[in-house]
Amino acid sequence: MRLKDKVAIVTGGGAGIGEAIALKYAQEGARVVVAEINPERGKSSVQAIRKQGGEAVFAPTDVSSEDQVKAMVKTAVEQYGRIDILVNNAAILLTPGETRAHEITNEVWDRTINTNLRGYWLCSKYVIPYMLAQGKGSIILIASRTGMRGFTGLAAYSASKGGVFALMRSMAADYARNGIHVNAIVPGTMDTPMNAAEFSDPEARNKYIPRIPAGRLGIGSDIAGMATFLATDEAFFCIGGVYLVDGGADLG
After folding, report:
1. Which residues are catalytic, by number?
2. Confidence (pLDDT) at 202
3. Does residue 2 fall inside a structural domain?
4. Fewer CB within 10 Å, N- or C-terminus of the chain?
5. Does pTM top 0.90 for this prediction?
């Protein structure tokens, strides 16, 4: 077990990529704090972990709320005594609402930035002091290709994810000498709840698949393997890295 006795917080751990990472971490021996805004999903993820013999606790968390983030961290420390891994994964894509920059409402812009970027910063802000005290830790930010290049009609989401890369690199440089390694994972086109509405249409699915050399859309477990490696001590020298897990989509 590569994560035996480690304590991990996974935000958005009740569905999609976050749930897959939480389950994989538990399989690898970690004790997992499932931070999730949706109570049903969060509790379901914890139950799945316990059913497979793992250890987990649910922390109801809206990552854009400073008070709820503080409570999440408190839950982790009170329950398990330390925090070794933070996976910043919770994010939103507001559809309808996402569009070109001049057409986005202030509400959509603020909600997107507050969750997808401020949320990553808040969770890191309150976890890092515990990692500094331990002299060790791993922070993984789930990023997006939308933050690397221009995507039409996704101004707020793209801006939030572009900020994720900048935040990751800054934290990686700031905390490497403290034994904290910070990295980002960039998923490809994913068959997850965030994209469920779009991919409910078979034509939409078939539009993307030919562009992916692997021949299919990504699923949560595809990301969980890389997230596990980056959380291990073996990845200690991986600092400020951007790891694409996209089925070869950038090769086309």
Report:
1. 157
2. 72
3. no
4. C
5. yes
Domain membership of residue 1 (yes or no) is no
Any idea what the CATH number is for the domain that residue 21 is in? 3.40.50.720
Sequence-ordered list of residues with C-beta below 8 angstroms from that of 78, at least 6 positions apart, any chain:
none
More confident residue, 215 or 39: 39
- What are the tens digits of pLDDT across the range 158-171? 999 999 999 999 99
**% helix, strand, coil for the chain, step of 5:** 55, 15, 30
Instruction: Identify the domain containing residue 174 by its residue range.
Output: 7-251
In a domain, 76, yes or no: yes
How many Å apart are CA 187 and CA 219, to the nearest integer?
9
- pLDDT of 104 over the 70 cut: yes
Give the pLDDT score at 40.
98
Is there a domain that residue 21 lies in?
yes
Which of 12, 11, 2, 57 has the alpha carbon at shortest distance from 32?
Answer: 57
Number of domains forming the structure of the chain: 1
- pLDDT averaged over the chain? 93
C-alpha Rg value of the chain to the nearest Å: 17
Residue 204 CA: distances (Å) to CA of 21, 47, 145: 26, 33, 19
